[in-house]
């Protein structure tokens, strides 16, 4: 035991003695508080079987025969693990490609047509009401706020669905400005805060074996997806391969008939693509890269 300001002599003593099983313990270290260093030194002495005179160190401790004493173990620690470790699996084929994901359109079921929830108040902009301002004015005059507001997009000046004759950047930018104005007006209208705006497009997304046919509608989807993330539950995007669904939406709403579009609204998905009467929803899946091109 070295009684001094540091462990210099202890290190030198270890190098001078060949005998094994000896303990060299300094009581103080210059880089540690004195109390911590002393307690640590006593602990090291104890695990080597050299217990100090506890009556001298702790004169106030009870010494009667009835005092309970606990024998401390002479090993430094005991460790038992109870966690189930999952085996590490590594495959030679794992590489950067294994971290790639892509969006896949997965088939999802639609609600049945004969449920009572199909008979909801539905307004179709361009059919039941000329525009959002007219709908808001109707609600302000006492009409019930519809639970679902359908906006076929894009529309012509008469509120009918249309496909732009040109896909020039200026046309896309102008259409996006109109969509943004509708979104801002929709979110600012407190009378319709409990309603859902369903934007109905055609050719906006590419389900497998499809291709994007309408850049204007596709750009609107990009903007509206951002609006969805910031305002959950206020927007639903539906893309259909039957453009006449757009023109029939008003008649369907007027007769409270559950068309595929309205059934899709009740499916609870924020984004859907209707293809041949079947609904598809976007899902994130692991991407499998194709074979590299040889040209």
TrEMBL record:
Transmembrane segments: none annotated. Pfam families: SpnB_Rossmann. Keywords: Multifunctional enzyme, Transferase. GO terms for biological process: fatty acid biosynthetic process. Residues 276-295 are annotated as: Disordered. Gene3D superfamilies: 3.30.70.3290, 3.40.50.11460, Malonyl-Coenzyme A Acyl Carrier Protein, domain 2. Residues 174-284 form the Polyketide synthase extender module SpnB-like Rossmann fold domain. The keyword Cell inner membrane does not apply. SUPFAM superfamilies: NAD(P)-binding Rossmann-fold domains. InterPro entries: Ac_transferase_dom_sf (IPR001227), NAD(P)-bd_dom_sf (IPR036291), PKS_NRPS_Biosynth_Enz (IPR050091), SpnB-like_Rossmann (IPR055123). It comes from the Bacteria. GO terms for molecular function: fatty acid synthase activity. This is Polyketide synthase extender module SpnB-like Rossmann fold domain-containing protein. It comes from Streptomyces oceani.
